[in-house]
């Protein structure tokens, strides 16, 4: 079992014919993901290594039964691509694109609330359920199937920590790279809820970083709703204190956004917080054997 | 991108939001001249990309042209909280009856916008939010509905009747500005009611979404006006994320999260990072060479810790990139290289076989941080 992506995933790629899109689509397919279609307006009827290309998402869904979309469309058109996927009733959209304007994402975020579509990203490395499906740019080679669920704001930290888990023989159910943009889809809370409900996830890892209050809110959620063990890592204890212009952000969150504040919030609800990425794998190993 | 107050006020004026008469001054003489045109007195304010100016001596009430010149001279000479100051804003003094606060901000938690207003301006607004949150009116704005009349009524209901109409006009225009110019924050502290009944924005804090700059060339051009350290500029031009810090261990890593984690483990090993440098996804010889040049130009650096996790970029490619970079850049301090991930063994073999005198290859992050700390202590 896994969450978000798995054996049932039928993947469509928006922006598949671009350089990055083609490269990662073929990597995902080589990993074993069922890639059924690509969408590039004006290139309908062509194919990329046997994967048919359609002009619109709706056509692609009709023809192939795609249920998941991965987006590589450039930042100017990516918000529109997410909306198109949602209107074609795609259940899961994974948006890799970096640099989408926040206002565009605010509109997308509000629109998706009235739909059944779940968004991961944007500006994220994607989602992998090791051994089943890889949707995004997480290097599949460093992952292994298993019972640890992983959600992270940072991309390279996922790779690093997953690699150390795998090196110790600890596999993963699903790894979610949620991305670090201010307006994003699925976050810590939604991810932890999915893992809590997944019978094959035994323990969860969350890695956060300075800024915002996502980690503090996740801590409250864990206290109320999460029974499975959680191990966390927060990056940025030594990061330069960001210059801040207005006060509005701090008034809204009531949080200083520092790594120390986040670690403290998580520890206060019984989450073990590692102080180095390597310590994450050690804590998880102790927890699973102990 | 955080705008200077005077840039924010330019945007306010275009939108029709009342602001005091003011002039940007780059010399004490200009500040004195400005004060003369305002009838002899002026408020002189440093123009910097941070807040806290009022408390930090960055705002001075001047009752004479000479006073304005002296204030400007001090600010231009001393800078503000470590920031270079190349200009001040001199503004007319206005007869203020009452001070308020208003802002609209993109809210991370909801993915929408939040507008706030309180009648208690001119105070420490963050302390007010903690101690008496009920004094601040808050309105969630759905990005699909945008700002509606009932939102505005709810907000301005916090203010005395005499100020409501003027404040409503300001809020409506602030939202238009935020929306049309892709701002993620507009804040006015204080918004004031004058003795004559007008409502005026005495301050302007505007943050523009960097991702939206391509669709606002006029705003993107403002970036040129902010002072930037020459080393940071060089890194920026090469597409690298570089921030100078106070320590002695130079840091190169791929991915912001990994670089932040690297700063943390170097600190745990008892040393301090000299910089934050994220080379992003690629680790080509070009990128590596530029990164090393940037870091080695800092005389405080006693060793460099290169921390690379090979994902899609394979470690053997990174290893060759580092070696090639070292044929172009003269490594004056030792390099601690940690390669892990895809093809790590092959990468380390390439480094070992090259036997470069300045490279120390260490397999794990924690050990590499300890080695970097040791080398920087030795070089001290």
Describe this structure in words.
The complex is a heterodimer of chains A (290) and B (380). Chain A has 290 residues and is of the alpha/beta class. Chain A has ten helices and 14 strands. Chain A has a seven-stranded mixed sheet, with helices on both faces. In chain A, strands 9-8-11-10-12-13-14 form a seven-stranded mixed sheet, sandwiched between helices. By secondary structure, chain B is an alpha+beta fold. Chain B starts with a helix and ends with a helix. In chain B, the strands form four sheets. In chain B, strands 5, 6, 7, 8, 9 and 10 form a six-stranded antiparallel sheet that branches. Chain B has helices spanning 5-15, 28-37, 65-78, 125-131, 149-156, 161-180, 217-222, 230-237, 256-268, 285-296, 315-328, 344-354, 365-379; strands at residues 22-25, 42-46, 59-62, 88-91, 96-107, 112-118, 137-141, 183-194, 199-201, 205-208, 241-244, 249-253, 275-278, 303-310, 335-341, 359-361. Chain B has three domains: 20-93, ATP-grasp fold, A domain (Dna Ligase, domain 1, 2-Layer Sandwich); 95-227, D-amino Acid Aminotransferase, Chain A, domain 1, CATH 3.30.470; 230-379, Rossmann fold. The longest helix of chain B has 20 residues, at 161-180. The mean pLDDT of chain B is 93. At the A-B interface, helix 4, helix 5 and helix 8 of A face strand 5, strand 6, helix 4, strand 8 and helix 9 of B.
């Amino acid at each position: 079992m896994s969450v978000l992506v798995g054996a049932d995933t039928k993947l469509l790629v928006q922006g598949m014919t671009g350089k990055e899109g083609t490269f990662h689509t073929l990597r995902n397919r080589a990993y074993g993901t069922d890639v059924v279609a690509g969408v590039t307006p004006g290139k309908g009827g062509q194919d990329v290594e046997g994967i048919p290309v359609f002009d619109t998402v709706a056509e692609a869904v009709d023809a192939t039964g795609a249920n998941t979309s991965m987006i590589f469309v450039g930042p100017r058109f990516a918000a529109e691509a997410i909306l198109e996927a949602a209107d074609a009733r795609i259940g899961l959209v994974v948006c890799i694109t970096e640099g989408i304007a926040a206002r565009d994402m605010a509109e997308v975020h509000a629109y998706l609330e009235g739909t059944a579509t779940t968004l991961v990203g944007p500006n994220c490395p994607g989602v992998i359920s090791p051994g089943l499906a890889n949707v995004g740019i997480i290097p599949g080679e460093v992952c292994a199937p298993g019972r640890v669920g992983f959600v992270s704001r940072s991309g390279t930290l996922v790779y690093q920590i997953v690699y150390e888990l795998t090196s110790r023989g600890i596999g993963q159910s699903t790894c979610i790279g949620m991305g670090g943009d201010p307006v994003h889809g699925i976050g810590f809370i939604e991810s932890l809820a999915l893992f809590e409900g997944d019978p094959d996830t035994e323990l969860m890892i969350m890695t956060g970083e300075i800024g915002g209050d996502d980690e503090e809110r996740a801590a409250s959620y864990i206290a109320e709703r999460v029974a499975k063990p959680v191990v966390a890592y927060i990056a940025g204890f030594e990061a330069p204190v960001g210059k801040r212009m207005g006060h509005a952000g701090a008034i809204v969150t009531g949080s200083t956004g520092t790594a120390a504040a986040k670690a403290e919030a998580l520890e206060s609800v019984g989450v073990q917080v590692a102080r180095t990425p390597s310590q994450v794998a050690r804590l998880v190993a102790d927890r699973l054997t102990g | 991108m955080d705008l200077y107050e005077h840039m924010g006020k330019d945007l306010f004026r275009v939108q029709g939001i009342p602001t005091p008469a003011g002039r940007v001054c780059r010399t004490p003489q200009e500040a004195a001249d400005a004060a003369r045109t305002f009838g002899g007195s002026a408020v002189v304010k440093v123009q910097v990309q941070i807040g806290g100016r009022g408390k930090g001596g960055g705002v001075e009430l001047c009752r004479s042209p000479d006073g304005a010149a002296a204030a400007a001279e001090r600010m231009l000479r001393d800078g503000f909280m470590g920031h270079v100051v190349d200009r001040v804003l001199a503004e007319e003094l206005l007869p203020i009856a009452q001070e308020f606060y208003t802002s609209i901000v993109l809210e991370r938690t909801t993915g929408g916008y939040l507008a706030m207003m309180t009648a208690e301006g001119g105070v420490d607004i963050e302390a007010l939010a903690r101690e008496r949150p009920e004094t601040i009116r808050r309105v969630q704005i759905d990005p699909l509905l945008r700002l509606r009349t009932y939102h505005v009524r709810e907000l301005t209901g916090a203010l005395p009747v005499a100020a409501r109409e003027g404040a409503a006009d300001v809020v409506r225009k602030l939202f238009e500005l935020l929306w049309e110019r892709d701002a993620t924050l507009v804040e006015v502290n204080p918004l004031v009611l004058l003795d004559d009944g007008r409502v005026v924005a005495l301050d302007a804090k505007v943050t523009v979404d960097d991702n939206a700059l391509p669709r606002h060339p006029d705003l993107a051009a403002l970036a040129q006006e902010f002072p930037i350290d020459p080393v940071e500029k060089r890194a920026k031009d090469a597409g690298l994320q570089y921030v100078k810090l106070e320590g002695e261990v130079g840091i190169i890593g791929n991915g912001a999260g990994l670089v932040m984690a690297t700063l943390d483990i170097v600190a745990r090993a008892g040393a301090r990072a000299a910089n934050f440098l994220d080379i992003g996804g690629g680790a080509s010889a070009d990128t590596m060479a530029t990164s090393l040049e940037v870091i080695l130009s800092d005389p405080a650096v006693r060793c460099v810790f290169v921390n690379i996790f090979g994902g899609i970029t394979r470690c053997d490619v990174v290893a060759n990139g580092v070696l090639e970079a070292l044929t172009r850049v003269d490594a004056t301090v030792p390099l601690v290289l940690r390669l892990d991930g895809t093809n790590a063994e092959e990468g380390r073999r390439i480094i070992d076989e090259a036997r470069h005198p300045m490279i120390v290859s260490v397999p794990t992050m924690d050990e590499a941080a300890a080695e970097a700390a040791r080398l920087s202590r030795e070089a001290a």
